Amino acid sequence: MRLIILNNNLKEALRSIGGGIGDNSNLPILKNILIKTEDNKIIFSTTNLELAISYLASGKIIEEGSLTVPFGIFSSIIGNLTTERITLENKDYNLLIKTDNYEATVQGLNPEDFPIIPKINNVDKYIKIGSEIFKNALLKIINSIQYSEIRPEINGCLFSYQIDYLKLTGTDSFRLAEKNISADQFKSNFEEGFETILPLKTIQEILRVISNEGDLSIFISQNQALFKTNELEIISRLIDGKFPDYQSIVPQDFKTELVVNKTELANALKLTSIFSGRVNEVKLKIGENKKFLEIYSADNALGENHYLLPIKTSGDNLIISFNCKYLLDGLKSLEDKEVILGLNGDNQPAMIKSPADKNWFYVLGPIKS
Amino acid sequence: MVNANLNDLWRGVLGEIEIQISRPNFLTWLKSSRLINKKESEGTVIVGLPNNFAKEWVKNRYHKLILGSLRNMDSSIKVVEYIVERQPQPDLIKTKKGDQPETFAEIEKQKPLIELKIDSETNLNPRYTLKSFIVGSSNELAYAAVTAVIKDVGKKYNPLFIYGGVGLGKTHLLQATGNEIKSVYKNQIKVLYVSSEKFLNDMLWGIRNNKMDDIKKRYRNTDVLIIDDIQFIGGKERTEEEFFHTFNVLYENNKQIIMSSDRAPAAIPIIEERLRSRFEGGMIADISYPDYETRLAILRTKAQENRWQIEDKALELIANKVKKNIRELEGVLNKVVFYQDIKKDKINAQKLEEIVNEVVRVNTKNISANDVIKTVGEFFEISPADMMAKCKKKEVVEPRQITMYLLREMLNSSYPSIGEKLGKRDHTTVIHACTKISREINQNSVLNQKIILIKEMINKSA
Q: What are the record keywords, sorted (chain B) (predicted)?
């Protein structure tokens, strides 16, 4: 193998695939990156046997071939190179890096030993969506997903395709966020609806490496998914399991509904939570004076504080406790100036909604009084 | 038995391949593989692999090897197919130690939107973890035993028998062991937790519906069988027999068996000798009453978990008052916290005493002094007359002292009246007996067992 590649192209390739490096002590080659040439493209790949990331870079290929070297050393060298053109070539299994005034040999392994990256079998069925739309939707639910050893089926996001909409849901069993993408925002030739669960790590990689420009094609087969743009391919396993049936806990109407400025509410929560201790408990109170929401927290050993926030509200008075972090996570997913908070007494799940985006909501449970 | 044949065949193939490829490769690609099916007519076998990477790799690199060794063992095989078997995958993201955003205890108070359910396959409740099990001198042997079992399932201590009184954490330890095994071995090991009542009910159901085979399969097809409160199967002959066979099958196949009981195997009444000897064949560990420090540690953790504001002094008082039951310990703590919340005031020693008495109230049925004397007599096989007599033989003295102790403890009789009932003895003799027994009870576990048993017999007979 022998090729010349531009510094920036190579750096971008390495940045994109770094997240796929494996940590499997049985198979040291997973710490390696595979470089190979195919159809006039240079392909850089990494895998941890759960997902594989491949980046297609352009460059001048002088001689076809493939090689694999440790990612760490390779990316440290490239990161510090400033010359514009870099030559990569193999000497047996080793990699030779050359610029005008620099030369390095990196010991590699037999590229035949690098895991074969699986292909997806039904490539003619796919969903095509603007990368930015898909990423924004994921950003609105990812806050609710938290890694749990006990329940693998919620270590990811529910990806539910129902022909006229695509629904993404994340939960850690204490809160839950759902985002719908309507059919006019994507193209698809799947004729039947389906549900599957994307692993959290895969979602994080999509958000990290896929750029906002251009379209993203999503291919799904029985136990793996492929996310493909012009340069990138992320192939990932899917989580085997049944996502919890959550429809029954999503409140449909509310005894109390209030509208409040998002930034002010977030500030008030951050401020009052100073006295809220380890479970982050803050109390929200709507009393006789319905023009204000009182937010307060107290700790026997530290002290207490109260905050009055102007709101618009209708419905019953109440006092309800939340984990402040969960409330803030819900607000973070929102871009609007104002938020709607829907409540049903101090023991029922509450909902955060956006006045502008009817396709998103965030449900969270109160702290038992 | 088709399954067993497939397993044997595949084990043979793996054995052959293992020496031909490198160890890392073998571990990565073939370790969790399985022969799923064999279609005799077409000579096709189907190999299940854990993920797509393994499937691609095995298909491309090891197909010839596999087909070759399969044909060596069974020449009728012509085609090998590979599929990805749906099974739980290892973790993707490792949570750093000490960086866990919320421990389970902290979010306890937060109402989950979707309840953590008891795992229907294993019957385990994820609430019980080893992390939340507080180890003290009273239970460190049992704890050490389960950690050894977790490390070396089925080999080291098999069967593991844990016994101890009511409310000392047997169920917690058993369930936590199951959960831990499940998480350490990433669901590769099948765990089944049942109470002996559930076992009994399953048997009854199986017998009634003629589905014994299903039940047998369910219990014998597991790698770790955990049975709680095994003493209840004593005297139920058919269940005992079935359990005996299940036990043997599992034991012979090196499957782990963990049992708990409220007393040592030797002390379980009406259990068949062959079963008893099997229980005693493995590791027996006891959980005894927690010492003061452990009790205090439990209370502290509990208070911290729930963020209860409670003075150390009060915790110390509770630990001092409630000695024999962790569940009661927690009950008292709950009540104290409740009292403080309502009254907005710190608790004092007197009120605490009241609460303790309320929670720890003994089940006072109508037990007469005669019941006690009679039962102790029956237990030690001596006549009430001997007990009243002036005899000072060792065989009579101990039962007599135990009777005095029980009369004092269970009936709250006065020392003189106890003396009166047992052959007109002086009240100082009675006081001596009571202090002696209550002291020895804490040091001598045989005596402790005896007394627990006698109490139970008395309660039953009344």
A: ATP-binding, Cytoplasm, DNA replication, DNA-binding, Lipid-binding, Nucleotide-binding
